[in-house]
Amino acid sequence: MMQKKTDEIEKYMKDCTLCPRNCHADRMAGRTGYCGMTDKIYAARAALHMWEEPCISGCKGSGAVFFTGCGLRCCFCQNCEIAIGKDGCEIDVKRLAEIFLELQDKGAANINLVTGAHYVPQITAALDIAGEQGMGLPVVYNSSGYEKVETLKLLEGYVDVYLPDYKYADPLLAQQFSHAADYPEIVGNALAEMVRQTGPVVFDEEGYIKKGTIVRHLILPGHTRNSIQVLKYLQRAFGTQIYISIMNQYTPVYEQEKYRELNRRVTEREYEKVLNAALELGIENGFFQEGETARESFIPAFDYEGVGRK
User: Which domain of life is it from (predicted)?
Assistant: First the structure.
């Protein structure tokens, strides 16, 4: 079994087409594609994370593993230290499996894979090892949404909960902020595959999600029209099959020279406008944020906690 996984990892790393960028980089030879990563796994944090949706973090905390690198690389990235930067500690598949088991021992409600698309073959290999050693937590795949259906199919049977973003309904905005004019089409197809795999959302007796898809939308300052278009699409395409998480926690992480509207937080009026639109659209299954949520505490310290061996 492990030899098959090793062969699969080598196949994808030699000619990488795991994400929609289709770089064809030979990552085994040390080349990097759009994600900025070779075949080596890098992670910047593995710890109980308390700031996800209530059904994911709850009181226990979500066992979040933050991977270095990203195939989308938005100009306003909230985790830019690891997504666009190089912060991270090198680990292997065996160590990743150990991390999953250690998070389970700490009482995590689930294993939360944050931005792991460029490591999918290694992640499934690590989940196989951890499963053989008693890891039985639900697995959450936490993603930008910019995913290939073919790659998502590699995760079938491994992932219980998909937690993708849907950032843009407007291709022009997607091109400006993420150099991905095809984002709306790619994400629409990816969401359909995620929902096919998980089916409707299911919770356990404690209120934790066991199965299903929660789609996140981060409102961007000055772009409520895009947000409303996102909600319209999600409601029309998926209705009550998914939950929608509408977030106002956007935090400017550095000064934008070209897109100056991104240098501020979302106003209360902007957030209320989007929430009112959600109500008018008849969206029933959802989460929203109360109070002053746009603050630095939502961005964890990428200090390698839980990554290195003790």
Answer: Bacteria
